[in-house]
Amino acid sequence: MVTVRDVARESGVSISTVSRALAEPERVAPETRDRVVAVANRLGYRPNRAASGLRAGRTGALGLVVPDLENPYFASVTKGVQARARQTGHAVFVVDAGEDPALETELVTGLRSQTDGLVLCSPRAAEADLEAARDAPVVLVNLRHEGVPSVSSDDAHGVVLAVEHLRALGHRRVAYVGGPDRSWSDARRRAGLEAARERYPDVETVTVGSFRPRVEGGRAAADLVVASGATAVLAYNDLVALGLVARLRERGVDVPRDLSVVGFDDTFVATLASPPLTTVRTDLARLGARAVDRLVATLGTRRAVAAGADESPDPAAAPDDVLPVELMVRDSTTLAPTRDLPAR
User: Fold this and answer.
1) pLDDT at 121
2) pLDDT attached to residue 314
3) Which of 50, 178, 236, 265 meets the CB 3.0–4.6 Å disulfide criterion with 210?
4) Three-state SS annotation for 163-225
5) Are 171 and 204 in contact (CB under 8 A)?
6) Cα–Cα distance for residue pair 260/298, rounded to 1 Å
7) What SS3 class is residue 24?
8) Is 203 within 8 Å of 174 (Cβ atoms)?
9) How many angstroms separate the first and last alpha carbons of the chain?
10) For residue 124, with 0-12 CB atoms within 10 Å meaning exposed, 13-18 middle and 19 or more buried, which class applies?
11) What is the DSSP secondary-structure string of 106-150?
12) C-alpha to C-alpha distance for 20 and 7, rounded to whole angstroms
């Protein structure tokens, strides 16, 4: 079996130089790197990535913690994380916290020793609990915490786009069905409602509470939406919108003739719904990929500093990534009704 010693001897360099040329080529002079790679290929040398990673104190794996993998939003973000991680040579450990903040904190603590860094997607734990991860490389998705790099979508602007669309259709009373109490994204969407009120004072917006971010949450909110007198409703996410549509149909309320419904996130269920949902779209795969980019950059900086390089700018200090959103107009919204909703 060809070993790293064989490659070093044939290349006329040290074993450590061979290791760097193959694992961290940017740290080796191009001429030396090319010579080492050529010799390794000629001899048929295949480095043991697991062993070299352990010697360097690296696992070659990233951790991803999500609140609920059954939610298509998190499934789509996960696919984006996994695809970009593969491109960067990392495996991914994915764990589901089941919307349980206590379990989430426990999972984060357990993953720290098994991975090189963590992506925490829409964490539900209190910010104080996240301190458990502060000494490990961490990137947050849909949450901002001082000193921690984050990636999010412009949810507040998405709400403004939705209200603007509904206003153009003649709606002047719009309800909002909120998500979990601890959801940072829900707080951003409520901030978007405030911005919409200021921009369009002729549109009255009302909130009808906080609900589970699943179909059951939408069903539970539907009767309150009808009672609010709104002619249109913006749901926390697409699943909640589906629940709304189902319960409204049972009450004899037609969507969109009697009540227009807008979802959020543009997950795959939005186009499968009947009627297909008008919804605020975020590129969820890109969101996951950007989180990996931020995490890998953080890891690279830490390794360079540990190797004695001059300290470079901390990726955590860089501006937070905020991805744009767009409104996808489909069949669940139409002109405001001119008659009252069915009372039954």
Assistant:
1) 95
2) 54
3) 178
4) HHHHHHCCCCEEEEEECCCCCHHHHHHHHHHHHHHHHCCCCEEEEEEECCCCHHHHHHHHHHH
5) no
6) 44
7) coil
8) yes
9) 79
10) buried
11) HHHHHHHTTSSEEEEES--S-GGGGGGGTTS-EEEES--BTTB-E
12) 13
CA dist., res. 12 & res. 43, Å (int): 14
Pick from 18, 241, 17, 87: nearest CA to 233: 241
Q: What value, to the nearest 5°, has the Cα angle with vertex 221 and ends 218 and 227?
A: 140
Sign of CA pseudo-dihedral 124, 126, 129, 135:
positive
Tell me, what's the pLDDT at 157? Answer: 98
Amino acid symbol at 202 = D
**Residue 301, token pair as written in the block:** 């900086």
CB atoms within 10 A of CB 302: 15
Tokens at 200, concatenated: 């369009």
Contact by Cβ (8 Å): 104, 123: yes
Please determine, for residue 32, whether its predicted confidence score (pLDDT) is greater than 60.
yes
Residue 135 has a pLDDT of 67
Which range among 38-42, 53-57, 180-184, 329-333 shows the weakest confidence by mean pLDDT?
53-57
Q: What share of the chain has pLDDT > 70, as a percent? A: 86
Which residue from 119, 65, 118, 126 is spatially nearest to 101, judged by alpha carbons? Answer: 126
Write out the two tokens for 164: 């603007």
The answer to whether the CB of 231 falls within 8 A of the CB of 205 is no
pLDDT digits (tens, 9 = 90+) for 160-219: 999 999 999 999 999 999 999 888 999 999 999 999 999 999 999 999 999 999 999 999
More confident site: 305 or 245: 245
